[in-house]
What does this fold into?
Amino acid sequence: MSADVAVDVVQLDLTDISRFEAMMTLFGDAFGDVARYCDKRPSQDYVRGLLSSDAFIGIVALDQEEVVGGLAAYDLKKFERECSEIYIYDLAVSASHRRRGIATAMIQALRRIAQARGAEVIFVQADYDDPPAIALYESLGTREDVLHFDIAISTTEET
It folds into this structure.
């Protein structure tokens, strides 16, 4: 990490509504999808429930008090034995703070959380057209080439 940027990496808790909101804004900007992340935000009660849940893990990187990085993950309890796997759903760093080790620092914080929870592995997906993400994840783990399928949820009864 660059010495000129002092960031704090913290796990969000149920008191961190404003940091959660800032993380959502960061994701919208970073992914070029403001509509998805900002137009229909969940209520504060929903966010508090999410942040107090064992299933969701939110991590932010702070430069002073500004959210400059965010990581949203899920703790997926396994059925075949008493353990879990952690899935990184979203990870982004603001354009002005990239290439400084912030994403790696957030993943390292997630590793500590995963270890404390007894998780077996952290996994993440990356798009083929995102070389920086692929390079980051390859530097931290083992690449597996798999297929991903989105199965639509129909709002009408299928015949």
Observations:
- Residues 7-140 form a domain with the Aminopeptidase fold (CATH 3.40.630.30).
- The radius of gyration is 16 Å.
- Strands lie at 7-11, 56-63, 66-77, 84-93, 119-124.
